[in-house]
């Protein structure tokens, strides 16, 4: 009880000094809990949606996925004849059955030919209005579609694009473009997952999406009273003889939920990873806080020891303070996490995915995980300072001394740090020298961990040398004030090392990712310059395949000399060594692709692969399966016949563009695959006539004006798009790493604030002998800057080493250019100086306001 009272008294007495440490715990716990609440809420929302939208039993074609998705590489959804509907209705236990037809391989545009597809990445769904949809949507205005010239749209899409009754829209599918006027607007009665929904009458939907009447993509079946879904499924399956896929509502909902869970899992664990980095940075803040508090209370602890307190009691007293700090920070963090989750839901709402707070899901495991994680991390971080406090002797009460220094521990720390750093550098060297990326990645991971830990451990040793160099370069120009700032930073190398290490971690990751991202862009750009021999590339940024009408528009553009179509399909391969490879990708293109993409070969000529019944394989495939020029491979095309194709070329595996592709001609593909099963083009390449590049570029854009889902790019555009995509990904990662950097800044603030308190008497004496308030504030700011720059130097150097090693592994995959983004590195280094200035504002202000006499009288 005495220990608890002492700890409570000390905690309350130093509540101001604990505040920033509590904020660090709060932020980290909030990020963890916010992530868990947000992803759990998303899962709950989608679970409710899938449960509400699934009929008792759903019948679909064998080609459709378990989630009910009906898109295909042909652009048309796989369908079943209307006779199946009658067979289903005749099955025992069926109360009602309704045929539906829908597709997501569509683009919908307004009267100005602007796309109405969601920008959030949600699907655009066009289908027939049916009773199953009516369960989850209600008509808010107008009427349901009653003819080919009418269409109904969901309210969210209408609001976002300013659509109203009577407006004309166009539905672009593989069949063609169908235009209709809005006859009605429907609202979701469940959460809108971000989709854009458009409804036609049944016959119009069939003709618009499939090009035929009397067909359905799905049949929704409702069970009669007293009939379970499982029993209904059995009866319907028996009536159809196993020719179609039959699923219960639970099976469809579970399949959809699994898809969402897989997607959410990536987001969840990525965000938790960044929260873990923030926790790691927070550890240094907590260690510094308790180390300084222990040092400032040396006399107090010595007196406690002198009147009978044992080492264990002193140790326990500090740990109880850490426990209180962890509890306060974690409880506030859990509450803040719920607020963060609501903020994320609002952000998703602004992007088109409406998430209701009614579905807010806070599982009991979330606050427990936040509390346990926050408390455990805080107590573990405070263990070393607590252990150091327990070593304070009773004699320390008789002298004005800090916590006992342990020279032997310092030597051990330096040796251990150097050994770990050396092991990390060795691992990075082995990663860079690896022959296979899979092997090298293991060494890279080990090298990153060991070098990071090594730098953290050896930080205090490095602090002395690095701070002196920074002082000589940056601080000496400020005269005596600069020298005092340097000495303050060197006064406690352990403290400086720990404070700098907190900033080092975040900046090391920033530098590493910057090097990797820049190298990827530079390598891909080099490959484009070396390999791409065409002028223009036409593709959909949303992944939609290119319709025949759009291809024809490209061919008709003025100034275009040649057009190359590019398709992709799966097939089962039987190789010369007798192995069967199922669902292996094969690329079909026009013979001009050999000119448009100058792919390097190690044997044969790529142009020969486009001869009848011929193909190419890549180098690694040839080595693995004993394939040579002239070898024959049995290729069973999906939905088509089996062909015996002769290998005419072996392409290099050391490429970035189309890495691992195996080619054949479109004519060969058409010979073995029925026309209705032929896949649409993934890409279309176009080359301009000599001297007409600009005119052809303009003509292509004009020709595709009716197809806003496709983008025309020349090589410069393609490079810009590649750089933009990688840049957006990096910016998102930098944004998440900002949490760790914020926590590191709090660490600098806390270190300076506690340092000011620790040096109160010293500051009073300096003021008494003539140091002005302005000079005092400058001294503290310069000390903060040099600590921040120390952390930045270590972090940027370490990160560039990681990034360069990672690029060597990417070189094994064809990304051979190492690009150091010096503007980013220099910008981050300079930014670190401003971080140091910002962190010093409050401590410097408080130091400047000290009463000189009171400061001198401080014990």
TrEMBL record:
Which InterPro entries would you find in this protein's record?
A: ABC3_permease_C, MacB_PCD, Macrolide_Exporter_MacB
Which residue stretches does the UniProt record annotate as biased composition, category Low complexity? 60-76
Q: Determine if Cell membrane is one of this entry's keywords.
A: yes
Is the DNA-binding keyword given for this protein?
Answer: no
Q: Where is this region: Disordered?
A: 60-80
> What domain of life does the native source organism fall in?
Bacteria
Bilayer-spanning residue ranges: 269-295, 318-342, 362-384, 414-434, 446-479, 500-522, 732-757, 782-802, 822-845
The protein's UniProt keywords, in alphabetical order, are: Cell membrane, Membrane, Transmembrane, Transmembrane helix
Chief site of localization: membrane
Instruction: Pinpoint the MacB-like periplasmic core domain residues.
Output: 19-236, 499-699
User: Where does this polypeptide localize?
Assistant: Cell membrane
An annotated GO cellular component: plasma membrane
According to UniProt, the name of this protein is: Membrane protein
GO molecular function ontology, one term from the record: transmembrane transporter activity
Q: How does it sit in the membrane?
A: Multi-pass membrane protein
